[in-house]
């Protein structure tokens, strides 16, 4: 009978194992996970660090792909190179979607889009216009710095974009035209030119279309599983977010103004501390933002000199210093962004418009004129504090006052007092002069 029970036990164990396998086979597979990040605005040091970090985090998490929503007018060349380098060396598929409708992949955005494994655009978007624009007035490099500089900048940029397009199997000829001729095309035309692979109205439709397609990642074919994927948002760190927010010409302009005003007020009124602290903090933030922008040093000096003249106006009240300071603030704002810089793909949003500079400069100058007017009024008014402020005050005797002494109540305080003529207790007196802690008073005749 022993063999019988052993056979039953073996059958029981085998049944449990088969049931476990059947249960495991019945469980649905886990949905694929796709990382997502957003590039909205200028390509600068902050956004570059953010995208590079997104690639790293997606690789470490082993996600199926990294989806990037793109809307940019352009930005810094070195920051663009860092992003492209991370995309080309990525071990996770990079999917770029230019959207929503009305968005664009301009200048630096062309290079970022071409460096992706798969690219799509929403209807109503455009891509292109990657020709370097430099010079204080936004003119062509040849007009700004001569033919040799123009040829050097253009050839280097064309070689860069062609290398990216060829590595990703996209239209290198159009990429070169986007640089040489500033060609820009809408989404449908970009698809026909094989600049992108799909036109998708939403990110979800792009992921559905990409499902099952094969891309080459690190020389290895990878089949994408992106249908109904779980999307994990990758947010920028605090430092990346702050640096991206600060990298705006208007922000840098205002920070330099506040820094100059705060430091100047602290120097002219030592010991107030608050203006000096605010000025130093604004100066540090302005310098930090300047590292992410092509800021012209001469323009910064014009801003600081203009602020110094406005502060001097508070003491001189001539009107000329205030007017000169206002002009310098306007000039500093106009020339703040160094557009003659081959390291940047500069676009119109980078320029500080007169519509922003003039109101700001006039507001600061107006505030300085108002303070100067109030300061002049204060200098003409009689002193109300200290010993001189007691002269002319009316009080009351607390005890009889004589040439030898007495006590009075003046300005809410008890004072020792003397009078050339005796004054009885409770009489009204007026202060004629102050010597040390003693008041010289006379009786007020009613």
Mind explaining what this structure looks like?
With 446 residues, this protein is of the alpha/beta class. It has 3 domains: 205 residues, 2-enoyl-CoA Hydratase, Chain A, domain 1; 133 residues, no CATH class; 56 residues, Beta Barrel (OB fold (Dihydrolipoamide Acetyltransferase, E2P)). The protein is built from 15 helices and 18 strands. Strands 9-6-4-2-1-12 form a 6-stranded parallel beta sheet, with helices on both faces. It has a 5-stranded mixed beta barrel with strand order 14-15-16-18-17. A hairpin with a 2-residue loop joins strand 17 and strand 18. Helix 11 runs parallel beside helix 13, helix 13 packs antiparallel against helix 14 and helix 14 runs antiparallel to helix 15. The longest helix has 27 residues. It is elongated. About 4% of the residues have low confidence.
